[in-house]
């Protein structure tokens, strides 16, 4: 233990380097612990950003609670002594309550005496503890740490957010049991392996940093609610925006929009393994559409609505029975969530010529139909309303006319609805007991800071990090995949990521205007304003881990995005280019351009493929290149997922080169344009008696 006397050098407990004044606002409860520093990835030589406690250590450092050794190390694996613990406890308690703490070392005393005296004065220490002279040499057990930390905050700031059981509770001495259970339920101290508390073990500096971080920042506490729909948790942000796909095991369930002819739009539900298995499970009638897909108890739920009316349904597909059933039919289900086996939903109940006349009801769906909790929400009030269940409440956002969007909750126990936060929320999503959000500043401007608040302590707001200024614009949306938060800005056509330490980077340039992302377990789907899968530049599919390996969403479902459905009309007076000469690089697969015209900033190219190979083929991919006056100005490369073209068959495809992919403007009435397509395909072997 002699090594631990090194703690004297710690800024953590050296009054000359960190005084009570370092806490920006003493006596304001949890709001006293404001950020006063900014730990970077090179602040400590012995701490990597991949360390499990990195974010907790950063929270403590940024708030001046733990700042390491003068030699530039943190010592994450060193054992915490009683002197560490009483010092941290005194500083947290004094800042939280605004009590005076005279940390000046007096001659002839131990450096930690002022902190020890403070803890004794406010009765923070257990009865059985080492002598004052040996506090710097004695490791502190998890039981003793729980006893001390359980007394540091008011009970209103340590509400229960976890219903996990302590597997070794019977072995915790009665003297400590209430303290341990309190911090366990509050998500501040959690179990070790097999959910055991292991109260007699010592604590490392990394572990105590994680505990202190949870103590002062409720948004990083470890919540658990056995009544919540944990299967939907990875997809929660999808329901806040557009949700078009979910994943169960190796199967993906996807909503797809296609055309049976140039004017008839059909929405369908497909299952696919993104390889050879593609099955249509459900198809709408003309004029109906699907959205809001989710999973619950191994089943797939999705909404159906009839355009121009308030008529709609909530449907369920059961993979076990391979059948689609109606859960609710009546009004349009705008948004919904599962909590404790019940479906809570917002219904669109009244259609009108203008949104000002729209009306919405909030309630719950059951076998008996729909039970209203609150009726008559206006379009303005309910436009960001997506219910979310946690710890006995349903949370949602409500907006006011030309005013803020705030967080509200409905208490299942007493039926009351109350406003929890007055923060003006821009875009958000829930993750356990935490709501992540972007906000507006006091002047109504877009704020680039990513905030998080625990719904159990909504007044204590945690600043996770700040997105670049380019993201501080309108039309933003937030998502989370694994431990990374993503922000999509359709205004500047880019996606940024933020890790748990607050570090950001540009991860995707969209190449067009996209309003939402949809994450499954391992895929990310980029979705435009309107779900138009007939446009090759519209819905795109990526590897969710790194947003690389782009393919087309429709192709992944097993349907080409380029045939039968692509229908674009040139504006009146629009110059149109066409050619009867083949633009294909493959002689036995001639391709002609029936029409090419500009549409806004895009170039629309309609083509006709003729299969003269002598065999049936499967088209695999294409490269389309457009040159103006001999200079290439646009190129697009994409897969065509196994689209079959019979021998001597003819098929038309429409390609759209997005404005972001075009390097200069194109004037079809003046420019000399040339188009080249490089197709690839596989020969389909003819069937014989041996391979029927």
Explain what you see.
The protein has 692 residues and is mainly beta. The protein is built from 9 helices and 34 strands. A 7-stranded antiparallel β-sheet has the order 5-6-7-8-9-10-11. The chain has a 4-stranded antiparallel β-sheet with strand order 1-2-3-4. A 4-stranded antiparallel β-sheet has the order 12-13-14-15. It is elongated and about 100 Å long. The model is unreliable at 1-26 (pLDDT under 50).
Strand-helix topology:
Blueprint lengths: L53 H9 L19 H16 L15 H9 L20 H8 L24 H12 L19 H12 L19 H5 L4 E4 L2 E9 L5 E8 L5 E6 L4 E9 L2 E8 L4 E8 L4 E17 L2 E9 L8 E8 L2 E10 H4 L5 E3 L2 E7 L5 E7 L5 E5 L3 E7 L2 E6 L9 E6 L2 E10 L9 E6 L2 E6 L4 E5 L5 E6 L4 E6 L3 E6 L11 E4 L7 E2 H5 L19 E3 L11 E9 L2 E9 L6 E12 L2 E15 L4 E8 L15 E11 L9
Antiparallel strand pairs: 1-2, 2-3, 3-4, 5-6, 6-7, 7-8, 8-9, 9-10, 10-11, 12-13, 13-14, 14-15, 16-17, 17-18, 18-19, 20-21, 21-22, 22-23, 24-25, 25-26, 26-27, 28-29, 29-30, 30-33, 31-32, 31-34
Tag the structure with descriptive keywords.
elongated, 7-stranded antiparallel β-sheet, 34 strands
> First CA to last CA: what distance?
77 Å
The shape, in one word, is elongated
The description of the largest β-sheet is: 7 strands, antiparallel
Fraction of residues in helix: 10-25%
Low-confidence stretches: 1-26
> Based on the structure, what is the oligomeric state of the protein chains?
single chain
Helical stretch tally: 9
Strand order of the largest sheet: 5-6-7-8-9-10-11
- Beta-strand portion reads 35-45%
Q: Nearest-angstrom radius of gyration?
A: 30 Å
Would you tell me the structural class of the helices and strands?
Answer: mainly beta
What's the β-strand tally?
A: 34
Instruction: Give the rounded overall mean pLDDT.
Output: 87
């Amino acid at each position: 233990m002699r090594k631990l006397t090194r703690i004297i050098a710690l800024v953590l407990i050296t009054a000359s380097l960190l005084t009570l004044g370092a806490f920006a606002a003493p006596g304001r409860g949890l709001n006293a612990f404001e950020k006063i520093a900014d730990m970077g990835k090179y602040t400590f030589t012995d701490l990597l950003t991949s360390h499990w406690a990195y974010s907790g250590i950063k929270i403590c450092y940024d708030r001046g609670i733990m700042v390491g050794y003068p030699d530039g190390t943190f010592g994450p694996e060193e054992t915490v002594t009683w002197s560490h613990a009483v010092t941290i406890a005194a500083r947290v308690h004094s800042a939280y309550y605004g009590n005076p703490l005279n940390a000046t070392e007096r001659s002839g005393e131990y450096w930690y005496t002022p902190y020890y005296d403070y803890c004794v004065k406010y009765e923070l220490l257990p009865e059985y503890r080492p002598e004052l002279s040996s506090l710097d040499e004695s490791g502190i057990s998890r039981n003793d740490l729980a006893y001390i930390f359980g007394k540091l905050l008011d009970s209103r700031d340590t509400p229960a957010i976890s219903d996990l059981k302590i597997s070794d509770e019977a072995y915790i001495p009665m003297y400590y049991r209430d303290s341990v259970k309190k911090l366990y339920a509050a998500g501040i101290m959690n179990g070790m392996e097999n959910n055991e508390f292991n109260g007699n073990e010592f604590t490392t500096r990394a572990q105590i940093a994680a505990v202190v971080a949870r103590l002062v920042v409720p948004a990083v506490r470890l919540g658990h609610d056995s009544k919540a729909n944990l299967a939907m948790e990875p997809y929660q942000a999808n329901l806040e925006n557009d949700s078009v796909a979910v994943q169960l095991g190796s199967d993906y369930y996807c909503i797809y929009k296609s055309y049976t002819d140039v004017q008839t739009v059909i929405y369908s539900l497909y299952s696919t393994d993104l390889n050879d298995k593609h099955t249509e499970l459900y198809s709408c009638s003309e004029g109906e559409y699907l959205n809001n897909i989710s999973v619950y108890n191994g089943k797939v739920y999705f909404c159906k609505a009839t355009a121009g009316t308030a008529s709609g349904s909530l449907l369920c597909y059961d993979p076990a029975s391979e059948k689609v059933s109606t859960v609710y039919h009546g009004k349009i289900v705008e948004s919904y969530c599962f909590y404790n086996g019940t479906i809570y939903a917002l219904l669109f109940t009244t259609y009108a010529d203008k949104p000002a006349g729209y009306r919405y009801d909030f309630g719950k769906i059951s076998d008996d139909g729909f039970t209203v909790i609150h009726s008559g929400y206006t379009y303005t009030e309910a436009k960001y309303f997506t219910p979310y269940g946690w710890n006995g409440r349903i949370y949602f956002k409500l907006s006011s006319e030309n005013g803020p969007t705030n967080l509200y909750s409905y208490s299942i126990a007493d039926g009351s609805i109350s406003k929890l936060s007055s923060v003006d929320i821009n875009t958000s999503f829930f993750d356990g007991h935490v709501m992540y959000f972007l906000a507006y500043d006091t002047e109504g401007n877009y704020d680039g800071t990513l905030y998080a608040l625990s719904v159990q302590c909504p007044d204590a707001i945690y600043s996770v990090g700040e997105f670049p200024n380019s993201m501080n614009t309108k039309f933003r949306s937030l998502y989370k995949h694994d431990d990374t938060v993503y922000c999509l800005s359709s205004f500047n056509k880019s996606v940024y990521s933020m890790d748990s330490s607050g570090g950001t980077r540009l991860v995707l340039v969209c190449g067009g205007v996209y309003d939402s992302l949809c994450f499954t377990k391992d895929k990310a789907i980029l979705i435009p304003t309107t779900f138009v899968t007939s446009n090759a530049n519209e819905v795109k599919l990526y590897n969710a881990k790194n947003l690389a390996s782009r393919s087309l969403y429709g192709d992944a479902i097993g349907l080409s995005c380029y045939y039968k459905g692509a229908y674009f009309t040139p504006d009146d007076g629009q110059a149109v280019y066409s050619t009867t000469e083949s633009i294909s690089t493959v002689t036995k697969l001639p391709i002609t351009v029936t029409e090419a015209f500009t549409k806004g900033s895009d170039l629309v190219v309609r083509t006709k493929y003729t299969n003269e190979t002598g065999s049936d083929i499967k088209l695999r991919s294409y490269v389309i290149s457009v040159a103006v006056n001999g200079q290439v100005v646009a190129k697009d490369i994409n897969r065509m997922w196994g689209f079959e073209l019979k021998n001597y068959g003819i098929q038309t495809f429409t390609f759209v080169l997005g404005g972001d992919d075009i390097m200069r403007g194109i004037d079809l009435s003046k420019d000399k344009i040339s188009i080249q397509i490089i197709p690839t395909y596989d020969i389909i072997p003819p069937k014989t008696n041996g391979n029927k």
